[in-house]
Design a protein that fits this description.
This protein is α+β, with helices and mostly antiparallel strands and about 90 residues long. It is built from 2 helices and 4 strands; from the N terminus they run ααββββ. Strand 2 and strand 3 form a beta hairpin. The chain is globular.
């Protein structure tokens, strides 16, 4: 399978697992549209303590939490927690 096909299979599986667990920004969006939006994306596997962005940088990135949770912090201060199906990022 091509990298694009493997990527979409993995994303589709994760999105299917989210259905019904909690309402996310992609709920109710036609698969065709979701595929178009996510087709240029990447899957990131992160562990505790990993960073996806840093304060002061202006990334043009939107992150969709497909599994687990993501903490938004300002130093040691916890600002928010994003759960499966939620979107974070400068453009979110």
């Amino acid at each position: 399978a091509s990298d694009a096909a493997a990527y979409w299979t993995q994303v589709s599986t994760l999105l299917e697992q989210l259905q019904g667990s909690r309402q996310g920004i992609l709920d109710g969006v036609p698969e065709e549209t979701v595929k178009a939006v996510l087709s240029r994306g990447h899957l990131l596997e992160c562990g505790p303590g990993d960073f996806i962005a840093r304060k002061g940088l202006v990334p043009r990135t939107v992150f969709v939490v497909l599994a687990g949770t993501l903490e938004v912090r300002d130093g040691p201060r916890l600002l928010a927690v994003a759960s499966e199906g939620e979107v974070v990022g400068e453009l979110a």
